[in-house]
Specification:
It contains 5 helices and 6 strands, in the order αβββαβααββα. With 237 residues, it is an alpha+beta fold.
């Protein structure tokens, strides 16, 4: 009986060791998984900072006007005061369409330079539309006020326009020419006040807004910002 009792104790200890080893194995796997995720996040952070520090050459080369084949998808979104804004209404002007978020460090880095670019070219026909991907308006309002941004922010609460433009990373900026065609997509922060950015916008502003012409116009087209006029009632006769 005593021998059987000892054998049972040994078996019980063996089962305990096996359980401890199994639990420690799970723990080690969990720690390894967490370390892999942490390393991936650090790598992504370094990549984002590296992309954010790229020089003027980071802008995509400008395609000739005849090689731009894709019209920018149209959309209508409210601004932060509730007024509806439609992309197609800016046909004839150059549009910088920026997708961003208040929690995005590279977005915060590039916004002041985007404001300077907008101030320089707004009277020549540049329109800047900022579409935040935040799910609450208050942080966006505070962000716009803190950075003193004068271009409009459009509210895409359901994320439908971000999905329409296939946004995978922030910030992402689309340049749209006067005819409404997509020129380029810039993923990552850019220095929009740099010489490269100014030359790019100047070239786009010098192009003709006509769909039939591929030649640059000699003079920049005037900026048209006319509110819709009320329709006159027909007088009955």
């Amino acid at each position: 009986m005593e021998q059987e009792s000892r054998e049972e104790q040994i078996e019980e200890k063996g089962r305990g060791f096996a359980a401890d080893n199994a639990s420690s194995g799970i723990s080690r796997r969990s720690w390894m998984f967490m370390l892999i995720i942490f390393a991936a996040m650090i790598g992504l952070s370094f990549l984002t900072q590296w992309r954010s520090a790229l020089p003027d050459a980071s802008f995509h080369p400008l395609k000739p006007i005849g090689q731009r084949q894709t019209l920018a998808p149209d959309f209508t979104l409210p601004n932060l005061t509730g007024r509806l804004v439609r992309l197609a209404d800016f046909r004839g002007q150059v549009v910088l369409l920026n997708f961003w978020a208040t929690w995005c460090p590279p977005c915060r880095k590039e916004m002041p330079s985007m404001e300077r670019l907008y101030q320089k070219f707004r009277d020549q026909g540049l329109v800047t539309l900022a579409v935040p991907t935040d799910r609450a308006r208050e942080p966006v309002l505070e962000f716009m006020e803190r950075y003193r941004l004068s271009f409009p922010a459009l509210w895409d609460g359901e994320g439908s326009v971000a999905e329409q433009y296939q946004i995978l990373g922030l910030p992402t900026s689309y340049l749209i020419d006067r005819r409404g065609f997509l020129v380029s997509a810039e993923v990552g922060a850019r220095d929009w006040a740099s010489t490269g950015a100014k030359d790019l916008i100047s070239t786009l502003l010098a192009e003709s807004p006509s769909l039939e012409s591929g030649k640059p116009s000699r003079k920049p087209q005037p900026v048209i910002q006319i509110p819709p006029q009320p329709r006159k009632k027909k007088s009955g006769r």
